[in-house]
Amino acid sequence: MKHFAIAAVCLALLGGCASYYTTPSGGVSLAAISEKDEAIADAFKREPAMVFPARIAIARVATSGYQSMTNSGYGRGAYSVITTRDIEREDALDRIARLPQVADVAALARIIVPTNLTSTKELREAAAQLRTDALLVYTLDTSFRTESAQIGPLQTIALGMFDTENAIVTSTASFAIIDVRTGFMYGVGEATATEEKRSNLWGSGDAADKARQAAETKAFDQAMDEVGKLWTSIVKDHAKAN
């Protein structure tokens, strides 16, 4: 937070009454936090053990120390967990609960998530406390750019500095469905959405962040559609074995 404050003061001295916006932290690679304590050959020995109808735990992850205007990450290490829903629609859990062969859905709360996070194993252990069978883990990676410049995460920008160009926010929601008992990976997927408008319409940090939220909400909604397709395939391939 100290870095944010220093950057804001410096920019204020240079720009007078100009408005500024600090882009949020990024998402996290789900491949990077997958469990790596086994040899590749051992990973192939993992078997699906999900019981149907299944109970599903849901967790959103982001970079360690994630910060945005509407949320912050919990935990430290390889990643953090977002336990407050901001860009997700209120019926998000209901959409998953209505899928075939789903008995119940539960979001992981920070009270059962450890503070030290190194891989998806900690999430599976938390999901096991809820007696769930599958873990749906997802992350959002959002980028900002104009027609002439790419703006990375945690960068403070002067709003209106590119007032003759379009400002573009692109968000990708990536997800994986993992067996809580064995760590077997049932499948992965992603969806991307974009918000675009003239940058001079971003008259305040709040307006810029609303564009970020809109892009992330659309990406999340599209990703949930993909989750439904993957889940239907999982049921077809594995429910018959129960």
Structural commentary:
With 242 residues, this protein is α/β, with parallel strands linked by helices. It is 29% helix and 29% strand. It is built from 5 helices and 11 strands, in the order H-E-H-E-E-E-H-E-E-H-E-E-E-E-E-H. Strands 2, 4, 5, 7, 8, 10 and 11 form a 7-stranded mixed beta sheet that branches. Strand 7 (134-146) and strand 8 form a beta hairpin. It is globular. The model is unreliable at 1-18 (pLDDT under 50).
What is the fold's blueprint, element by element?
Blueprint: H1 2-15, E1 20-22, H2 40-44, E2 54-62, E3 76-77, E4 80-82, H3 92-97, E5 102-107, E6 116-117, H4 120-129, E7 134-146, E8 150-151, E9 156-158, E10 166-179, E11 185-198, H5 205-238
Parallel strand pairs: 2-5, 2-7, 3-6
Antiparallel strand pairs: 1-9, 2-4, 7-8, 7-10, 10-11
The N- and C-terminal alpha carbons lie at a distance of 51 Å
Rough outline: globular
Number of domains: 1
The number of distinct helices, counting runs of at least 4 residues, comes to 5
Beta-strand percentage range: 25-35%
Provide a compact summary of the structure.
With 242 residues, this protein is an alpha/beta fold. 29% of the residues lie in helices and 29% in strands.
Features:
242 residues, alpha/beta, 7-stranded mixed β-sheet, two-stranded antiparallel ribbon, 5 helices, 11 strands, disordered N terminus
